[in-house]
Amino acid sequence: MSIAEPLPPPVETVRFRDAQIEMAHGAGGKASRRLVEGLFAPLFGSLGTPLTDAATVAVAGTDVVITTDAFVVRPLQFRGGSIGTLAVHGTVNDLVVSGASPCALVATFVLEAGLPGDVLEREARAMADAARRSGISIVGGDTKVVEHGKADGMYITTTGLGAPDRRVRCAAASVRPGDQVILSGPIGDHGITVLLARGDVDLDAELQSDTRSVGPLVASLVEEAAHGLRWMRDPTRGGVATALNELARDSGLGVALFEERVPVRDAVRGACELLGLDVLHIANEGQFLAVVAPADAERALDAIRAVPGGEGAAVIGEIRDTPARTVIGFSPFGGSRVIEMLVGDPLPRIC
Amino acid sequence: MSIAEPLPPPVETVRFRDAQIEMAHGAGGKASRRLVEGLFAPLFGSLGTPLTDAATVAVAGTDVVITTDAFVVRPLQFRGGSIGTLAVHGTVNDLVVSGASPCALVATFVLEAGLPGDVLEREARAMADAARRSGISIVGGDTKVVEHGKADGMYITTTGLGAPDRRVRCAAASVRPGDQVILSGPIGDHGITVLLARGDVDLDAELQSDTRSVGPLVASLVEEAAHGLRWMRDPTRGGVATALNELARDSGLGVALFEERVPVRDAVRGACELLGLDVLHIANEGQFLAVVAPADAERALDAIRAVPGGEGAAVIGEIRDTPARTVIGFSPFGGSRVIEMLVGDPLPRIC
Question: Which residues have a Cβ under 8 Å from the Cβ of B298 and sit 6 or more positions away?
Fold first, then answer.
């Protein structure tokens, strides 16, 4: 992935004029985008470069991929994972979907005074395990402590370094009409699991977070179909709907989403219906989306399905000329709807 | 700087068994060290490598220096700086004293819901300005939002990437008896300024934080005396006393500190006397310590003094064989005392 690829100009110029920060500014949807495009990007001089999950930086003449994420998930632990596993997998996945091989990770901890020592040890151990399984080394860090009542136990920031895989040339600008959209597996597991872990909803479901490294799935895809691979993204905050809207916007093209092909577990579907949530907006922590040239789509899909954990992969959509910069969902009964980027924050602090 | 340099074995094995996290675990002194050496280092597999301000990682065959820090300073703004300037300068300085040229920086923000938009804009602008002055690009980031009442406005984590300067070969293991200890300028300004900004102490002093990049000072030092340069560190949390104790411990040697030579402004000295604080434990954000071979010490000092902002540099101490792993302070009247690493946290959340 390169940040130097030419991109279509943004449709409109965004200004950040919000009087105050709301939860939605951290939810990964429209408000987050307004903050990044309207405030950070112009000030930090990165206006005009695409907002991807990772940046490529030349260090002593070598391209290095870097990505960073803060984690504030509440509660700290939930079925299938915890803040520590998310903090490692989230950053590893941002490297992987940027076409980079993970090399090293650093972490900062903001700890709340009074946090039990064994909770910290548990999370440090979870990070060490996740890093080992993901093939990345944790090489440094920093710890600060804030007063009791702040920081909900702990917040973690991880930053990952990777080496670009020269076989991968992903960019929204290289996506073409007819390209196929592949999703690696069932969606919504992470968001609904965290929601249930909070105990605010009287629902019991056999669910667990999908937090994992998508490295093995992407490695197989790249091995078999790098030539046709045009774009990747992990649909975390804001879900599949937000990721595909970013693709539509950044490519200047349309995305047709065949909704019945999107893999969703019954328990997730049921919870979403009950709570009035659109599963396409729910966060995932162990899935990725890939856009592949039509000629390579079947081989790409087979490559992902061949890896344990990739059996549920599916082609869920197609790139179209029109309507430009829009995601349209098609139902099996002939209906269609515009699928919007996430607005507001129905499930705050999901990662 | 290389993390592969052989080091003397640690004197004792530290175990982290603290029942709960206290403010002191984030203060940079003994409790912080217990946390890092007793918990993180063994779990993350970095046991035996020195705990320096930055790590060196091979990415695609090229050595890259990476460092990360969380910033939770309270209040967000104070004379001479703010959380945004600290977040950039702190990370730039960690790269610089590790012998690296700063290349790029990424940042995460944990924002409190209800934070005024213009406060965020002010800090983003402060970061952009500090980055420009320090010659580093801000290339990426992430934002999360937590509920009102958490996060004190904002916490920031920055991670910096640098390219190693091949002329610099710093390591505690290469320090030798007779080497001279240079300090770049007056100490305590930052810590006392932040303390006064809190308004808890009825004291008015013409002070401001020393937050700045030490890059130009170090560049001049390296240009003139790289050959004799053996160790550098920026004495932030825990102050000069903690940094020198780490040097004594990591080198296995003693440090003689000539206390009257340590530059301290009258206002800082007065505040410390009034509050019962040892200025050697007060945090600095724009100073560094360097250990230089005796033959190069004068040239090194002149090089620092020749740069605007380096006029106050001084030789403040000397490396000695004994007492090993100990810092001894000598007064002009012939007295001496053991100078300990910071214990507890007299000034919490200073950076």
Answer: none
Strand duo B137-146 + B100-112: pairing: parallel
Domain segments of chain B: what residues? Answer: 1-49, 66-164, 172-338
Instruction: Check the CA dihedral B60-B64-B70-B76 and report its sign.
Output: negative
Q: Identify the H or E element spanning A59.
A: strand A55-59
Does position A1 have pLDDT exceeding 90, yes or no? no
- B2 interface with A at CB cutoff 8 Å: no
Q: For residue B220, what pLDDT is reported? A: 98
Distances (CA, A) of B115 to A18, A122, B141, B172: 10, 32, 19, 43
What is chain B's Cα-based Rg?
A: 19
A302: which 2 tokens? 């087979």
- Strands lying side by side in the sheet with B154-164: B55-59, B62-71, B154-164, B100-112, B137-146
For the ranges A127-136, B53-62, B187-196, B198-207, the lowest mean pLDDT is seen at: B198-207
**Nearest one of B148, B189, B206, B205 to B347, comparing CA atoms:** B189
d(CA B16, CA B140): 34
Distance separating alpha carbons of residues B238 and B257, to the nearest angstrom: 16
3-class DSSP assignment, residue A265:
coil
A138, closest residue in chain B (CA to CA): B44
Evaluated on CA atoms A22, A25, A26, A29, the torsion sign reads positive
- pTM metric for this prediction: 0.95
Which pLDDT tens digit goes with each residue over B93-143? Answer: 999 999 999 999 999 999 999 999 999 999 999 999 999 999 999 999 999
Residue B4: pLDDT band with limits 50, 70, 90: very low
Question: Tokens for A3?
Answer: 């940040």
Alpha carbon of B211 to those of A153, B153, B269: distances in Å? 29, 20, 19
Instruction: Please tell me the distance from the alpha carbon of residue A287 to that of residue B320, in angstroms, as a whole number.
Output: 57
Residue pair B133/B92 in contact (Cβ under 8 Å)? The answer is no
Residues B103, A36: C-beta atoms closer than 8 Å? no
Cis, peptide link before residue A323, omega less than 30° from 0: yes
Query: Is pLDDT above 80 for B64?
Result: yes
Encoded amino acid at A120, one letter: L
Q: Which residue has the tokens 């901890």?
A: A109
Beta strands in A205-266 (DSSP E): 229-233, 254-258
Selected from 3.40.50.10140, 3.40.50.450, 3.90.650.10, 3.30.1300.10, the CATH number assigned to the domain covering A172-338 reads 3.90.650.10
Q: In this predicted complex, what is the ipTM?
A: 0.94
For tokens 């939860």, the residue is A23
Cβ neighbours of B166 in A, within 8 Å: none
Collapsed DSSP state (helix, strand, coil) of residue A268:
helix
The reply to whether A129 touches chain B by the CB within 8 Å rule is no
What does pLDDT average to over chain B? Answer: 93
Cβ-Cβ contacts under 8 Å, A64 against chain B = 59-60, 62, 64, 161
The angle at the Cα of B11, spanning B9 to B12, to the nearest 5 degrees, equals 115
How far off is chain B from A44, nearest CA to CA, in Å?
A: 6
Task: Give the SS3 label for residue A282.
Answer: coil
Judged by DSSP in three states, B81 sits in strand
Q: Which residues of B touch A62 (CB under 8 A)?
A: 59-62, 64
Q: Which residues of B touch A107 (CB under 8 A)?
A: 68
Binning pLDDT at 50, 70 and 90, where does residue A46 land? low
Fold entry, domain B66-164: 60s Ribosomal Protein L30; Chain: A; (3.30.1330)
What pLDDT does A322 receive? 95
